[in-house]
Amino acid sequence: RVSSVLNRDVKQFGKKHMFDGSEETCWNSDQGTRQWVTLDFPRTVKVSQLHIQFQGGFSSRLCTLEGCRTGEEPVKISELYPEDINAMQISFATVEETELDKLKITFENSTDFFGRIVVYHLGVLGERL
Length: 129
Hints:
mainly beta; Galactose-bd-like_sf
């Protein structure tokens, strides 16, 4: 799930584009503060890294990661401080290994004046339990 999609145009800017491996497609949020992405995993996972590629000018200065097991309340895992660049960012996103069924990434403050976030690739590394 995502907080919003630009002009509700899921065909062109929907969440699926973060995971399709294409350099041409992306998830583009609508305007507003605190955009987010929630990932529900089919089985419990142990997360070790987060990889993300923003469009420069439409990134977040602060990302908060929250996670939980099924039936539990989400807890804060980490805060990340990505750069406002186009490149895939891996080294900034090492997270403490955490077992969870749901992961929420909140983009606390966009570098875009209107609060839009653009993500070309999102990857969660770890292992299935």
